[in-house]
Amino acid sequence: MGKQPALGVCYYPEHWPEALWAQDAAEMVAAGISYVRIAEFSWIKMEPEPGQYEFGWLDKAIDILGQAGLKVILCTPTATPPKWLLDQMPDMIAIDEEGRPRGYGSRRHYSFSHRGYRAACETITEILAKRYGTNPYVAAWQTDNEYGCHDTALSWCESARDHFRLWLAKRYGTIEALNEAWGTIFWSMSYRHFDEIELPNLTVTEANPSHNMDFRRFATDEIVSFDRAQTDILRRHSPYPISHNFMGDFNQFDARAVASHLDIAAWDSYPIGFLQNLQDKARRDPKLEADCYRVGDPDFQAFHHDLYRAMGRLWIIEQQPGPVNWAAYNPIPAEGAVRLWSWEAIAHDAELVSYFRWRQAPFAQEQMHAGLKYRNNDDAPGMAEAQQLAQDLSGLKLDATTQAPIALIHDYEADWMTELDGQSRDFYYLRLLLDVYRAIRENGGSVDVVGPDADFSGYQLICAPSLMTMSDALMDRLIASGAHILAGPRTGLKTDDFQLPPELTQSSLAEATGFTTQRVDALPAHLPQPLSYEGEEGAFSVWREAGQMSGLGQGQSHDGLPVLVHGNQASYLCGWPDAKTLRHILSDMMQKSGLTPIAMPPYLRVRARGKHLIFTHYGPEPVTIPEAFTGKVILGDRQMAQTDVTILEI
Amino acid sequence: MGKQPALGVCYYPEHWPEALWAQDAAEMVAAGISYVRIAEFSWIKMEPEPGQYEFGWLDKAIDILGQAGLKVILCTPTATPPKWLLDQMPDMIAIDEEGRPRGYGSRRHYSFSHRGYRAACETITEILAKRYGTNPYVAAWQTDNEYGCHDTALSWCESARDHFRLWLAKRYGTIEALNEAWGTIFWSMSYRHFDEIELPNLTVTEANPSHNMDFRRFATDEIVSFDRAQTDILRRHSPYPISHNFMGDFNQFDARAVASHLDIAAWDSYPIGFLQNLQDKARRDPKLEADCYRVGDPDFQAFHHDLYRAMGRLWIIEQQPGPVNWAAYNPIPAEGAVRLWSWEAIAHDAELVSYFRWRQAPFAQEQMHAGLKYRNNDDAPGMAEAQQLAQDLSGLKLDATTQAPIALIHDYEADWMTELDGQSRDFYYLRLLLDVYRAIRENGGSVDVVGPDADFSGYQLICAPSLMTMSDALMDRLIASGAHILAGPRTGLKTDDFQLPPELTQSSLAEATGFTTQRVDALPAHLPQPLSYEGEEGAFSVWREAGQMSGLGQGQSHDGLPVLVHGNQASYLCGWPDAKTLRHILSDMMQKSGLTPIAMPPYLRVRARGKHLIFTHYGPEPVTIPEAFTGKVILGDRQMAQTDVTILEI
Amino acid sequence: MGKQPALGVCYYPEHWPEALWAQDAAEMVAAGISYVRIAEFSWIKMEPEPGQYEFGWLDKAIDILGQAGLKVILCTPTATPPKWLLDQMPDMIAIDEEGRPRGYGSRRHYSFSHRGYRAACETITEILAKRYGTNPYVAAWQTDNEYGCHDTALSWCESARDHFRLWLAKRYGTIEALNEAWGTIFWSMSYRHFDEIELPNLTVTEANPSHNMDFRRFATDEIVSFDRAQTDILRRHSPYPISHNFMGDFNQFDARAVASHLDIAAWDSYPIGFLQNLQDKARRDPKLEADCYRVGDPDFQAFHHDLYRAMGRLWIIEQQPGPVNWAAYNPIPAEGAVRLWSWEAIAHDAELVSYFRWRQAPFAQEQMHAGLKYRNNDDAPGMAEAQQLAQDLSGLKLDATTQAPIALIHDYEADWMTELDGQSRDFYYLRLLLDVYRAIRENGGSVDVVGPDADFSGYQLICAPSLMTMSDALMDRLIASGAHILAGPRTGLKTDDFQLPPELTQSSLAEATGFTTQRVDALPAHLPQPLSYEGEEGAFSVWREAGQMSGLGQGQSHDGLPVLVHGNQASYLCGWPDAKTLRHILSDMMQKSGLTPIAMPPYLRVRARGKHLIFTHYGPEPVTIPEAFTGKVILGDRQMAQTDVTILEI
């Protein structure tokens, strides 16, 4: 941590005449850009006919970019196999959940489980690795592009079915063990052999959740091995670090598992499109939507920065530079938003903020996606903001980011379980985590988003909402950290096999919090349940839990159910509160943990980076940084308007 | 009628260690339970390998339960064929309306039309019938489980197509007769042979409604013969009565036809899930939804009790015991709701109220479905309510249920026709019937829900809303009963072939009511049409009719269309009124029929069982039983809070 | 133009006993009807067995109708091939976008690309053409019926794929040219041969828009050649004019291309169903929906009359005569609405208003679709309105319709491009055009709706909203017309290949308007953006554009973006305004063009037909014709209630 941040850009030499490359490179450098990512969709250009390779163009592009002073991030092109490869092995295509072969004509048209396609990927990767593995202008690798995008993590094809059976045989050893773990006796679903097991799609009613859960685990393992095949080759031939670009609001595979063999956890940040999509999914918030329509959710990007930062060196490899094309609606960002987003990333320790893309493409699927430059080579508004950022940075030496005092546990398996366990169609795991994250930020807190395998030492408060499985071992580790634990709602309700724990809630959690969940009250968002908490009125919606209480209750629902239950070192939140109540609760929990909450003005956020406090403002109304934050202004001003950035040195 | 009600429970010995069975049985008996239903999903346990039968476990379970004093309801296991059977004949799987084979991994994965699967079902049924047909602990049978659940009544497979062609050939004799009945000349759809006829799915625009209608009739006949094959075998080997468990808000086949060869018409009652689902379907009522969220619609269960009671001895074989898992939202029932629902069933002559299930399963698809006991064997709140019910009953000798003074005609064919005839997407047959049923209950009335083939003698008022075909013979029978008839809206508008009657409305209906429908005004629920009726303002929504009036009009729509038209012994309701107007109309119709309506407080309901009046209260506000109801309180109190039950003896 | 309008009716002799035909014919004549359309769905009656023709019934029907004095419009029966033909060549069935073969049992069950089916169509057409080509009672032909209805313009079958490849090879010559035009390099989609190209359905994410665009063009060409094969045969054997019946709110193929070889552009006008469907699609207007629920949108029919009038002699071959059956809701039309709609058609130069249908069919799919007569042969209310219309017309000699002073450019390619280019899911091309059309009508204007290839001379104002491609040549022709041009929003943003123009906006457009679009602000309808225009407050919603302005701005959005930009002879509208602002803008533009806007009372409309001004009133409140309209009342009255029609002679 503490590396000074750099700017980058995504560039497609294959889209433009060679004559333009040198000029583009020079302009990038002039704009303060030092990294350039290339080639992730260029397989047909590298291998226009089967086995006939053409790398002259790529040699030249790398030379030109490198000689201009840019560091190249080179990608394997496996997200877009050529048509001729698909025609050679038509069964490499993924099958969708409805049982339909997915069509050719866009991208990601392959199944991770098809071994023939894997072999082809290894071949092209090896050729690239050998050719450019020690090229001095190359600085890093990216494997493939956005694994899982467009619902491609899961394929319901025969390759997947066959490998799933092998995976199950390996996981369970005997079919009896699988029958036991899945509870197949329930509907006479017991299997005699692993070869009787089908994929869990198109079933008459929902498939066994353990069956679904294992299929998701299998899909992650398939992506891990697919990616690992590439990184193994790259590492054999190249010393450069390897990245992959993950996505926001995405749960189809466990990114932590993939990142474990990568150096850099990159992600693609598109604040505005994500705002709209998330609103469509759960607990719509019309005021936030209207207030932040052109800046994005004030916590969504920060949350993901913290999420991926815990998986490796953090890169924003694709940063939205202006209006895009793929969301339901695609507005123009507010003036200053591109710089604001960039600073938010840097505040969270991004080493690289790289804009997608240099120049707007005039053709094909993303022609309405902005670049830093218009299609006619004029600068688009994002360019000036990137340049401003470069200028901001040039005078600064930012402190290293240090561990936050608060941890929020995020778990892909918990996410899958909440989805598969249903109960309320308005429950959305990411939204719940984001609400907790937001409540901490509204109290001026900084957060690390970590997996359940993290080292918890040094934290003062650890939040674990909807961590569906909370093993005794994990609970022991949490307690051992000395932090205060805030669990719930929906924490510890399942075993690893997706069964109910014998004692309803996992027992060491119940012991620590003084609360055992017995029944869940799964509600529509439109029927909130009033509560009172410390003299203020609020409401739970979507989710409540009823159970046995041995701890100390705080607050009450209208019908007497507790809001919070406190054990010695852990508390349990018994439902999903409205934003105001949750803010109040997190303030109390921070105080209980020895932290000092500071009430932030609406939509103002702060992130500590050592002695530097980086303030970002997302709201339509001007605000003033609270006096509790002392220190010297080294960028911006204590009075802040929408999209303003201010840095205090304390 | 008049049999004293018993309590039961659904139990799955195959889910639990044998060591627990005796204790479970003893606890059931202690709780006041006398019936236990078992084995409906246990085929794989009975026949773990093709042709290798294992019944030791079942022998033992029946022995243990029976020796504890419980009466066993034994099920055929045909709702969940083992995977090995499907692998033996893969074409036994149903094909969904989209043309996709349905997947394995849940339940009901078979087509009723596959003769190979039928043979397999007959074999296992015969083995069970022979083994347990005279077992003294067995008291009754259940065939299969919830026919049609998860859209399984119809299969679009080749077996269905082939048998549909044979069925049509039998129904029509000649292809010319079919062409005439269907009006195939309309779009050049005339057939030359029965083998040219396809199933009516995936057509370019909607298929011929007569074609669809016959496919639905065929599907019912397939289920009847499928079920009949089992009951014939059971009756050959066993003297015990036979039941099947039907469902609520379900119209995919004609339950009356299936029940005609059964002894017991059981159904599965889940008040809360049905409330939500029905709200999603038609004419949303947000106040009722909010007021009754934790108790269910005050009339939905009662309606279904009356519906199935007319088909055989009434059992509630699965009664919701707490929160469930399968609805869009799954809240915790209000305290007392389980007892309330049980009493509502008993008020409607249920001989058995059996809870689903004894203990919450810790695994598989329904692990979030409550039982009377928690997974850890503690009592869940439903247990105390069941015990309370047992205690309520122990001191009572309830009068026999007698025929109600009012009949409401329900007809599956009418339901299919309203659906296939479209016109307004907000029209929902069951909801219309429920609205009429509710309006009678709000006037203190008791109702029998009967089919069009019922014996109508003894009724004073007969309601026939949306009875799409009203033959002259039926009309004659209705008139002959001496009752007053309330027809409409949408009554008598089709012939049995799904054509328009020559005189627009079936003629004896028009003669009796003094109204001939000429045009229908099919509207969205959001554009209500104001009306005035007896000095009060109201509205029709979704449906109105315009026509020729020879009878006496009462009330008027804003544009002059009549609200009600009265002939001598019959009246026609010319649209679908709001709840208040409908209540007013039914009050008037009851008076016209010589009955005495009593205005009930909101959400209070009453059902007469001989001299016993059983009051159930669903509303959030306390109410007092109206003074018009005299008699001695033998249970509860005249002041009633939500979920209270009171019985008056008159 | 200026032909006196006639009345017609659609008749199905094959649905009724021969004994009724003569009486029906006599009654038609008595009602003032002179045209009768027949036989479009009667293939099975003409050819009941393969190769066995039966025309006796048709000979007789034509004789009876003709001898009664009616002119017969005879149809080719190719919209409903018999089942035996499908069984002969099962691959003639269309495949839907989901990859499913469409089922038999309704109509339009064929792919336009299947050459075997085409041959069968040519055979039956030739037989009809030879037999009736010079029959004195036949007056005109109709080919097939409603091409494209029920999503049948596109088929995703192998025939379509194979012919699409040939079509592409012909269009592009070389695969390199296609790769260039489509920008296939974007996602490694470059093709080596035309045979590598698939249809653009079921792709992982959206297919290349140029790929989709060419598939739509191909589909139009397939329909053109399918239709042309029939018209070539008809013209060889018959001197009578040929029509096809197009539809409303329909964009799946380019009707202008089909109409180019026809004589008559007929369309089927169902005002009420279209109102509901359009409300469901874009920018819902609840007040208009409620006010016009029983009369239809006051501009929708007029717009389509103007649209099709520009393609040939205008016929309304199917005019809604009462409530229909196919919309989501199907209300009864207001009294007088049938006459009102007929007059609106005549006001727009319809030579024929023909009602669908004579008598309500008692069977099959459309039994709830009204006719002029009820099923029992009584007159339905539409009959009296048709007779009233005949009487209205008998005393009148209407002036010829002359060119309107205002042109609105409508382009099918622009429609496809807006749909394929996405950006805001609330953008709907037809609705935008209708809004502009409405704003002109609200200012008392008359409009011609023309294609981009029209002769623009004589217009004073030409509007080109969302004309996505605006070539320099077209812009030159527009300028040369001398008219004032109102372009935008979303005009000139694409090349013909569906790429961005090099200079962002097509350059001569930018030069003429003084505005170059750089970024689009694509918004949800529920987040309107305030603007002020000439002292009045309004809003843009769904769409705004930001760019470079060299012209004169008028009005401003809240954030400074212009509302209108004026160049010398052209103006650019920079967003989609609310109705009031748009009315104001069009008033200003009319004045700028030397026209005199007249503010019309709500829902009152006028259309000039030479010296005859025909007023139609759609609103629920009575209105008075503004005094600015002088002249003698020759029909109706200056005071007008809903559905009234008034004609002034000036």
Quick description:
Three copies of one chain form a homotrimer. With 650 residues, chain A is an alpha/beta fold. Chain A contains 19 helices and 25 strands.
Tell me the fraction of residues in β-strands of chain A, as a range.
Answer: 15-25%
Low-confidence stretches of chain A: none
Specify the helix fraction band of chain A: 25-40%
E-strand count of chain A = 25
Number of domains of chain A: 3
Number of helices, where a helix is a run of at least 4 consecutive DSSP H or I residues of chain A = 19
Spell out the CATH superfamily of the largest domain in chain A: Glycosidases
Gross geometry of chain A: globular
Sheet with the most strands, sense and barrel status of chain A: 11 strands, mixed
- Any idea of the CATH class of the largest domain in chain A? Alpha Beta
Radius of gyration of chain A: 25 Å
Show the helix and strand layout.
3 copies of one chain form a homotrimer.
Chain A: E1 6-10, H1 18-30, E2 33-38, H2 43-46, H3 56-67, E3 71-75, H4 83-88, H5 115-132, E4 138-142, H6 158-172, H7 175-182, H8 209-237, E5 242-246, H9 255-259, E6 264-269, H10 271-281, H11 286-291, H12 300-309, E7 313-319, H13 337-347, E8 352-355, H14 381-394, E9 406-409, H15 412-421, H16 429-442, E10 447-450, E11 461-464, H17 472-480, E12 484-487, H18 507-513, E13 515-522, E14 529-533, E15 536-549, E16 552-557, E17 562-566, E18 570-573, E19 575-577, H19 579-592, E20 604-609, E21 612-617, E22 623-624, E23 632-635, E24 639-640, E25 645-649
Parallel strand pairs in A: 1-2, 1-8, 2-3, 3-4, 4-5, 5-6, 6-7, 7-8, 9-10, 9-11, 11-12, 12-18
Antiparallel strand pairs in A: 13-15, 14-15, 14-16, 15-19, 16-17, 17-18, 20-21, 21-25, 22-24, 23-25
